[in-house]
Design goal:
Elements (H helix, E strand, L loop, with lengths): L9 E2 L3 E2 L13 E3 L4 E2 L2 E5 L5 E5 L4 E5 L5 E17 L3 E12 L2 E9 L9 E3 L2 E8 H6 L6 H7 L5 E7 L35 E2 L3 E2 L3 E4 L4 E4 L6 E6 L9 E7 L4 E8 L1 E4 L12 E5 L9 E10 L40 E3 L2 H14 L13 E2 L4 E2 L15 E5 L5 E3 L4 E2 L5 E10 L4 E11 L8 E4 L27 E6 L9 E7 L9 E4 L9 E6 L5 E7 L7 E10 L8 E9 L7 E5 L5 E3 L24 E2 L9 E4 L6 E7 L10 E8 L2 E7 L6 E7 L6 E10 L3 E2 L1 E8 L6
Parallel strand pairs: 5-7, 25-31, 33-39
Antiparallel strand pairs: 1-5, 2-4, 3-8, 6-13, 7-8, 8-9, 9-10, 11-12, 12-13, 14-15, 16-23, 17-22, 18-19, 19-20, 20-23, 21-22, 23-24, 26-29, 27-28, 27-30, 30-31, 32-34, 34-37, 35-38, 36-37, 38-39, 40-50, 41-43, 42-49, 43-48, 44-47, 44-50, 45-46, 45-48
The structure holds zinc ion (ZN).
Length: 730
């Protein structure tokens, strides 16, 4: 019988026929999905430590939250694909789990060997999900060296997840920093060669069992939790080839954690003794560290065998579950299969995430939070809550902006919103204290028929801040929040006070027809004098024309939030923010816009880049970094370069530093003074995009499109050089 980890329900029912999710499979990817198999129901109840769970295709997880509600997750398929192979350098890969949560389809996706591997976990209907790995990864990454990693980390089923009630922590105890460092994020460039994040292909060859973090020899390690006991399991003193340490914690709920650190220099505490949280226990990163001084971290979770007696609890080697104390981790091991099916590896990132969250709370850092969501019905008004969001000491006004994944938006800490159509939606909150921003997203499954009456949303397909967030997107942990949702930003100055107008469409997601739209400013005070808003059209074909005029205004940023109201429509009124930046400095006539610059935007969780240290500097792109599309060409994914320019005619080209591949071609869309052009680019033949005229300001842009591309498309840097004066009137 298959093992259900919680053992509460073990159902081995009839053969289920699982319909195949329709997803596109990139070239070179490995996808697996069932046509017919024995589906299992795996019942897990929330406990106060994170639960590792493995699932096969067709299996249903029934996770009961602490409040008694059960979240259903069916695994419908998994896939893995190489995003980019850099030679020399390494491999970035991605994997995906196609699931149905509370009846609605969703894809959980991960990137490995890009900054995206340090991610904010998904939270769906109150269930926090870390997609740990899928078996298809181990078919994709060639297994050469070290062999054991692939065996020990390979899931026994199609996919492995770490799961927790979103209201609960990774563990019940407040954590302490593990590594003596001040910042609350990890940088993938510090993972040994940039490839030894958890299950990163070491030297492009085999999945690395743990997480390597580079730091100086002699750095300190501190106990992130209380340990019952701890000891070397390998040491130079005992004749092994390295110093490897393991701490054991047996939680009251029966789970046993093994946390390991390798390459230690000196142990600062007596072995085989408890170790309280926060204790400095070792100096590290100094023994057999290869080409970079680093520490190797591992995280394993086991369940105590109830029928196996517990012997002396102060002896790690005798703790009741066999935790392979004699294994030779990492580089030198014989290929040993896992000795106990109850011991599962997890990404140490899961624990680092909690460590960073705890420290941010101790330091009262700005935090966005939203109360756990539960599945909803179409048309049902849902009260959302930002309770738990944390304001800094700043006395500035605290703003809340929400988006609901369907084009809808709201302001304030407790908005009401109803979904017009069924689906699985990301609900995102951005909090802003005028100085910093923070964000958080949770997903909600919505069932039921589309609503019968009109339902209002605003759409602006060309504005990144209006882009619908795909449900599969996860956030990079600690990444900046560059813009507020549903915000139109205008750049103006005395020499061109009136930039181009923008248009926002008024859309109906429901039935019937929208009433005539009206626009009001917050508080009913009317729009500021610099802002002109007009509505045009009628019924479901209405739009809002937004114009600004900075004549006579001082330099500065001028925001205004207006509300578009269609009386009688669900979710009316809808907010829209206009931000006017009046600049005093001169615009550029010659500029290279790099992926790290403010004028760069790439659709998130699609364009990813490596930090492989073995990649020669002249192949790392402009500024030492670039993003790529992984050779996949879906519609709606793009990378845009915008700059504040002098008026004139410009030569537009790609940077000479970008390591384009010979077979690549793709469309570039240029918005210029006379309109728009789409240029098919083959950068191996020519790096020139063309000659275009731009007005003064930031109305124009150059945009690489993933749709209809061939080969590996690289988004790195675009160069604009003014070659002539303006021929059009401003
Ligand atoms: Zn390592």
């Amino acid at each position: 019988m298959k093992d259900a980890r919680e053992g509460k329900t073990m159902i081995r029912p009839m053969i289920s026929r699982i319909r195949l999710a329709a997803w596109s499979v990139a070239i070179g990817s490995i996808a697996s999905s069932p046509t017919c198999l024995a589906a299992e129901t795996i019942a897990v109840s929330a406990r106060d430590t994170v639960a590792p769970v493995e699932m096969d295709h067709g299996d249903e997880l029934r996770f009961t939250l602490r409040n008694g509600r059960t979240v259903s997750m069916v695994l419908e398929g998994t896939e893995a694909a190489i995003v980019e192979r850099v030679e020399p350098g390494g491999i970035i890969y991605r994997f995906a789990c196609h699931v149905r949560i509370d009846g609605q389809r969703m894809t959980l996706q991960r990137f490995v060997c890009a900054q995206e591997c340090f991610y904010e976990p998904y939270v769906v209907d109150g269930l926090r999900i870390w997609p740990d790995t899928v078996k298809a990864v181990f078919d994709l990454v060639p297994v050469r060296y070290p062999r054991d990693g692939n065996l020990r980390c390979r899931p026994r089923k199609a996919a492995r997840f770490a799961l927790q009630d979103a209201e609960l922590r990774v563990c019940p105890q407040q954590t302490h920093v593990w590594l003596d460092e001040p910042h609350d994020f990890l940088d993938v460039g510090r993972c040994y060669n940039g490839d030894d994040c958890y299950l990163g292909p070491y030297l492009g060859q085999a999945c690395h069992v743990g997480l390597d973090i580079n730091h100086r020899a002699g750095s300190l390690l501190l106990a992130p939790i209380d340990f019952d006991t701890q000891a070397w399991f390998n040491s130079l003193a005992a004749g092994h080839n390295n110093n490897r340490w393991r701490g054991i914690r047996r939680w009251p709920n029966g789970d046993v954690w093994a946390l390991q650190t390798h390459h230690l220099i000196e142990l600062l505490v007596p072995q085989h003794a408890p170790l309280p949280v926060g204790t400095r226990y070792a100096t590290t990163a100094g023994v057999h560290v290869g080409s970079h001084e680093h520490t190797h971290f591992e995280f394993k979770v086991g369940r105590r065998h109830p029928d196996r007696p517990l012997s002396a609890p102060d002896d790690p080697a005798s703790i009741a579950w066999p935790i392979d104390f004699d294994d030779q981790s990492e580089a030198d091991s014989s290929a040993a299969a896992p000795k106990d099916p109850e011991v599962l590896h997890l990404d140490p990132w899961v624990l680092f995430w909690q460590i960073f969250e705890d420290r941010k709370a101790r330091h009262s850092e700005l935090t966005a939070a939203l109360q756990s969501l539960r599945p909803a019905r179409t048309g049902e008004p849902i009260m959302f809550s930002a309770a738990g969001s944390r304001q800094t000491n700043s006395d500035r006004q605290f703003g809340y902006r929400w988006t609901f994944g369907d084009g809808g938006s709201a302001t304030g800490p407790n908005p009401r919103y109803a979904f017009a159509r069924p689906g699985l939606y990301p609900v995102t909150i951005v909090v802003d204290d005028g100085r910093q921003r923070a964000t958080r997203t949770q997903h909600i499954a919505v069932s039921g028929p589309p609503v019968a009456g009109p339902a209002l949303v605003l759409a602006a397909p060309d504005e990144p801040s209006f882009r619908l967030r795909p449900a599969a997107v996860a956030d990079v942990y600690g990444g900046p929040v560059r813009s507020l949702p549903h915000t139109l930003t205008f750049v103006a100055r005395a020499s061109r006070p009136v930039p181009n107008d923008r248009v926002v469409a008024v859309r109906n997601l429901g039935g019937g027809e929208l009433a005539p739209a009206s626009v009001t400013c917050r508080g009913g005070a009317g729009a500021p004098a610099w802002l002109k808003i007009q509505t045009t059209g009628d019924g479901d074909r209405q739009s809002v024309q937004v114009a600004v005029d900075a004549t006579g205004m001082n330099s500065g940023t001028y925001p205004a939030t207006v509300y578009v109201d269609c009386p009688g429509a669900v979710n009316s009124p809808q907010p829209l923010t206009v931000s006017l930046e009046v600049r005093g400095d001169a615009p550029a006539a010659e500029v290279t816009i790099d992926d790290r610059d403010e004028g760069f935007y790439a659709t998130p969780y699609f364009w990813v880049g490596h930090r492989f240290s073995r990649c020669p500097p002249d192949r790392r792109g402009n500024g030492g970094f670039y993003l790529s599309n992984g050779g996949s060409a879906p519609a709606g994914e793009f990378a845009r370069f915008t700059s504040d320019l002098q008026a004139g005619v410009y030569q537009v080209s790609f940077s000479d530093a970008t390591p384009f591949r010979p077979d690549t071609e793709f469309d570039v869309r240029v918005r210029h003074a006379g309109g728009e052009a789409t240029v098919r680019c083959r950068p191996a033949t020519s790096r020139r995009i063309g000659r275009f005229e731009f007005h003064e300001g930031a109305d124009g842009f150059v945009e690489i499109q993933a749709a209809d591309s061939r080969g590996l498309v690289i988004a790195d840097a675009v160069r604009l050089e003014r070659v002539g004066s303006s021929q059009l009137s401003p």
